[in-house]
Description:
The chain is mainly alpha-helical. The chain contains 12 helices and 4 strands; from the N terminus they run H-H-E-E-E-E-H-H-H-H-H-H-H-H-H-H. The protein has helices spanning 5-9, 30-62, 120-131, 140-168, 175-205, 209-223, 232-261, 268-285, 287-306, 316-327, 329-332, 336-372; strands spanning 72-73, 79-81, 85-91, 96-102. The strands form 2 sheets. A two-stranded antiparallel ribbon has the order 1-2. Strands 3-4 form a two-stranded antiparallel ribbon. A hairpin with a 4-residue loop joins strand 3 and strand 4 (96-102). The longest helix is centred in the last third of the chain and has 37 residues, at 336-372. The model is unreliable at 1-25 and 65-85 (pLDDT under 50).
Amino acid sequence: xxxxxxxxxxxxxxxxGERTVGGPVAAISPVQQMLxxxxxxxxxxxxxxxxxxxxxxxxxQQTPFHQALTCEPAPWGGVSRLxxxxxxxxxxxxxxxxxxxxxxxxxxxxxxxxxxxxxTLDAFVKITRHExxxxxxxxxxxxxxxxxxATIIYFTCYDQLRDFLRFGVGLQGSFVxxxxxxxARLGAVTVISxxxxxxxxxxxxxxxxSELRVCIRSAVARGGPLSLWRGWGPTILRDVPFSGLYWxxxxxxxxxxxxxxxxxxxxxxxxxxxxxxxxxxxxxxxLPFDVVxxxxxxxxxxxxxxxxxxxxxxxxxxxxxxxxxxxxYRGLFAGFMPRxxxxxxxxxxxxxxxxxxxxxxxxxxxxxxxxxx
Length: 373
């Protein structure tokens, strides 16, 4: 729902993220929301991708790809035993993507370099000096094909759903951001899941577009249309609770910071702080779902590269039981620090950029209204 000018003029940030009567705030269109979220997605990826490239290179140094045998996911979401192929997750700050190496021959050069690193800072310096600054953003373009549209859908739907629930349905309370965030993420994941499956097939098997069409038709013929949404369940189990908790905490923390600063609208620093805090909290609370989703993603990557039947992969419930049996509750909450370090800054950059973009368009629209009147 696009707010009318009359509604927008009554809106300002209040306690618990509610909207109350206040100064004039110009409405922004869904297209402007999409532009703001798209810009935020690009900035987030540019900021976070170098961190993940360095992380992957450090991991590859510990277990070189040319020595890899077969990959089995570790309980904390990494790779424990390696045999003929190597699977790992690449994150551009917006989404996790599966990558598969086959005998070290189909790996991109950016994660096969033999340089030895003594630590994170040393890796940044040596990669920049010997391989060029652009190497820190290796692998980014193909992952943005899905990450940017997914982020645009997600953030735009959240704002539209939140305003619809408040002004269209008349719901009030702190649960509105939680519900809107969960529904927005559900829609975005559902739309993007088939595209991510297609990208994984192309990367793991080196398929041409004509071969890809045949492969997809064959998969649909065997498993039905729902086979295009393989891995949807574990992704939903992690992303939907994360999104609901994130938006609930974000609106709460933002409102409290605005109240402390004596302002009715969040500035960049308030949005950045609220995004980091809420992102870290949601990341820790949903960590067990992240562990399960990571292991499932790697299993699906192996399946796509080896041509294994879907029936031979573990279900989400079985993965939970395996982790609990092997490591107990600690296995489900292992790796919380790396996840927080990755998620908190990504959330902070994304939401502050998005809010800044929306504020920019609000100012443009308000100035336009004043010129007309």
